[in-house]
């Protein structure tokens, strides 16, 4: 099937069955599409929708986002994960607001120069809001192309990324590019799903190599398995007699960058030594260890509650806060395990 015929058939399917009422498809603008594309990286649509709606209610324009404090941006991102996305979103908003007077640059190349905007996100903004003929490449597009063309290699390999981009550009039409890109994502999200694809309803069920050769379970190929390393940390939860707990802001680089967290130590002895050197009087209460998994390793967390018996003000030179544990009132970005532990503290108060 030629790329032209593929596009015609895909658009005919989308005109009848495609998703056209997602929040970012309404009142479409470069800003709204950009925020949605960043949120949708590594995150499913159903998860993104409520976060997107709250985010847009608080930051309705790129200027509003640019002027907001970073802590507030991180707070509204809490729960979405991959927090570098939020920091880059904030940085890019400032650049668009100051260098471009609030108007997004009009080329894919200029869009890619903004922090956190890669080739696919730039293509989506240009195609969906500027009428440009630019391809995209998300997980749905990769899956559809790999199955339709019978590509058996793992699509994440660097040489495969280049090949898939070449194919995406070849298949993307010059007309109705935005609709075509949305149709590719919709087909992958609703019919050509990772498991149990609805091949009988697919507009390409008579020409998809993966279906014809019964390869839908093995295409796209999974990433070659490697055992994730396991790291460990002790989270020291300092609590004043009045119930306030201590949180400090993490460095911008590294895990949970820019979010607030408890102090961390290599082991319990190191935490206790630090407390003793500080001259604190305290009672220690170790809690049950739990595991938090990142994309590239497991982190075993040993929480330890330190009930302080003397008043403490300055703990370290890091940017920090002492907070009463009322989760609904906390308006700073929190790492997911920290939020979990704060919820446990709140229950025991």
Automatic annotation (TrEMBL):
It comes from the Bacteria. It is an enzyme of class 3 (hydrolase). Its cofactor is [4Fe-4S] cluster. Binds 1 [4Fe-4S] cluster. It catalyses: Hydrolyzes free adenine bases from 7,8-dihydro-8-oxoguanine:adenine mismatched double-stranded DNA, leaving an apurinic site. Belongs to the Nth/MutY family. GO terms for molecular function: 4 iron, 4 sulfur cluster binding; 8-oxo-7,8-dihydroguanine DNA N-glycosylase activity; adenine/guanine mispair binding; metal ion binding; oxidized purine DNA binding; purine-specific mismatch base pair DNA N-glycosylase activity. This is Adenine DNA glycosylase. The keyword Iron applies. Adenine glycosylase active on G-A mispairs. MutY also corrects error-prone DNA synthesis past GO lesions which are due to the oxidatively damaged form of guanine: 7,8-dihydro-8-oxoguanine (8-oxo-dGTP). PANTHER family: ADENINE DNA GLYCOSYLASE. NCBIfam families: mutY (TIGR01084), PRK10880.1 (NF008132). One of its GO terms (biological process) is mismatch repair. Residues 39-190 form the HhH-GPD domain. Keywords: 4Fe-4S, DNA damage, DNA repair, Glycosidase, Hydrolase, Iron, Iron-sulfur, Metal-binding. It comes from Gynuella sunshinyii YC6258. Its EC number is 3.2.2.31.
């Amino acid at each position: 099937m030629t790329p032209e015929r593929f596009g015609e058939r895909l658009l005919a399917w989308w005109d009848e069955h495609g998703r056209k009422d997602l929040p970012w498809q309404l009142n479409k603008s470069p800003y709204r599409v950009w925020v949605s594309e960043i949120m949708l990286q590594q995150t499913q649509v159903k998860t993104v929708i409520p976060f997107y709606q709250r985010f847009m209610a608080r930051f309705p324009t790129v200027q509003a986002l640019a002027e907001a404090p970073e802590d507030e941006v991180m707070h509204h991102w809490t729960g979405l994960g991959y927090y570098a996305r939020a920091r880059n979103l904030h940085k890019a908003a400032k650049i668009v607001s100051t260098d471009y007077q609030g108007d997004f640059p009009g080329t894919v190349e200029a869009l890619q120069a903004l922090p956190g905007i890669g080739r696919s996100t730039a293509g989506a903004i240009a195609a969906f809001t500027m009428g440009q003929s630019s391809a995209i490449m998300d997980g749905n597009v990769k899956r559809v192309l790999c199955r339709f063309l019978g590509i058996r290699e793992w699509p994440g390999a660097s040489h495969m990324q280049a090949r898939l981009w070449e194919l995406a550009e070849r298949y993307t039409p010059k007309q109705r590019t935005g609709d075509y890109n949305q149709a590719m994502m919709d087909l992958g999200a609703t019919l050509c799903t990772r498991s149990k694809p609805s091949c009988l309803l697919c507009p390409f069920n008579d020409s998809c190599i993966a279906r014809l050769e019964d390869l839908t379970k093995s295409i796209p190929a999974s990433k070659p398995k490697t055992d994730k390393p396991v790291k460990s940390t002790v989270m020291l939860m300092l609590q004043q007699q009045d119930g306030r707990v201590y949180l400090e802001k993490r460095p911008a680089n590294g895990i949970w960058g820019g979010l607030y967290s408890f102090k961390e130590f290599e082991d319990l002895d190191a935490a206790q030594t630090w407390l003793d050197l500080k001259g604190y009087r305290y009672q220690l209460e170790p809690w049950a260890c739990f595991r938090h998994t990142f994309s590239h390793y497991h982190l075993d967390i040993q929480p330890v509650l330190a009930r302080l018996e003397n008043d403490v003000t300055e703990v370290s030179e890091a940017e920090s806060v002492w907070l009463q544990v009322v989760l609904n009132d906390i308006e700073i970005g929190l790492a997911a395990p920290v939020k979990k532990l704060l919820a446990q503290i709140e229950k025991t108060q």
